[in-house]
From TrEMBL:
The gene is nagB. The keyword Amino-acid biosynthesis does not apply. Belongs to the glucosamine/galactosamine-6-phosphate isomerase family. NagB subfamily. Homohexamer. InterPro entries: Glc/Gal-6P_isomerase (IPR006148), Glucosamine6P_isomerase (IPR004547), Glucosamine6P_isomerase_CS (IPR018321), NagB/RpiA_transferase-like (IPR037171). HAMAP family: GlcN6P_deamin. This is Glucosamine-6-phosphate deaminase.
């Protein structure tokens, strides 16, 4: 795992956006794995700005989102499809028929999960997957106890996740307790994984991800198995890491090497 510790959330978003910009400049028909939640919003703003400045184009891109609430149609303001349209797709030169979000309104969700896996495969697999992390270490909606080799499936949300996400729903509004999510195995199949985390409330989850055991109790710890996983975190999210200075030292050495190689 590459661990990049930056001073604040704005720097995390900028660093994360640059990874995606470079990816699109290198491979214009990239398959992107995308996430929702608060964390990636500023990164998406960076991608929108780069698209408007003609530094990158999404015309040849396909996207696959991590997850969706089961029981919400894409027109529902709390659905992840709606979120993606609002936060990214409506502002870039992407053809929406090339953007995929698990179908929360599927009549047969079990078949829909299998279908989602097949769509990812047919697209050639995900080149780069963006992730946030839950306070409980979840990635996508893979809650603690999720199988480390799991594939896209229906998952029940924990009370902690329902409580965390209640802020997006109006008082009295129906909030789903089920989701369709890519599995941890699906995420690990992406060629590159970029996880962003900001704020002190993510510090325990980051500690468990980086310095804890590989365990279903912290789904993000599965990234320890990935060959090209980058964690971009701010000082607050890094605040419980024991070896913080060592990770900063490694990153400084990495940057020196890349500069020497002109990369
Ligand atoms: C979103 C997702 C979740 C979030 C996580 C963090 O598609 O899969 O795993 O990334 O819950 O959410 P925020 O960024 O709102 O703290």
């Amino acid at each position: 795992m590459q661990i990049v510790i930056l001073k604040d959330s704005a720097s995390v978003a900028e660093y994360g956006a640059n990874i995606f910009i470079k990816q699109l400049q290198k491979k214009a028909d990239s398959v992107l794995g995308l996430a929702t939640g608060s964390t990636p919003v500023s990164l998406y703003q960076g991608l929108i700005a780069a698209n408007k400045a003609k530094q990158i184009s999404f015309a040849g891109v396909k996207t696959f989102n991590l997850d969706e609430y089961l029981g919400l149609e894409g027109t529902h303001p709390q659905s992840y499809r709606y979120f993606m349209n609002e936060q990214l797709f409506d502002h870039i030169d992407i053809d929406k028929s090339r953007t995929f979000v698990p179908p929360g309104d599927a009549e047969n969700p079990i078949e829909a999960c299998q279908g989602y896996e097949e769509q990812i495969k047919a697209a050639g697999g995900i080149d780069i997957q963006l992730l946030g992390i839950g306070r409980n270490g979840h990635i996508g909606f893979n809650e603690p106890s999720s199988g480390l080799m799991s594939r896209t499936r229906v998952k029940t949300l924990t009370k902690a996740t329902i409580d965390d996400n209640a802020r997006f729903f109006k008082v009295g509004e129906y909030q789903p307790h089920l989701s369709i999510t890519m599995g941890i195995g699906t995420i690990l199949d992406a060629k590159k994984v970029v996880l962003l985390a900001t704020g002190e409330n993510k510090a325990d989850a980051i500690k468990a991800t980086v310095e804890g055991a590989l365990t279903a109790a912290c789904p993000a710890s599965a990234l320890q198995l990935h060959q090209d996983a980058v964690l971009v975190i701010d000082e607050a999210a890094a605040s419980k890491l024991t070896d913080c200075d060592f990770y900063k030292h490694i990153e400084a050495e990495n940057q020196k090497l890349l500069a020497k190689l002109g990369l």
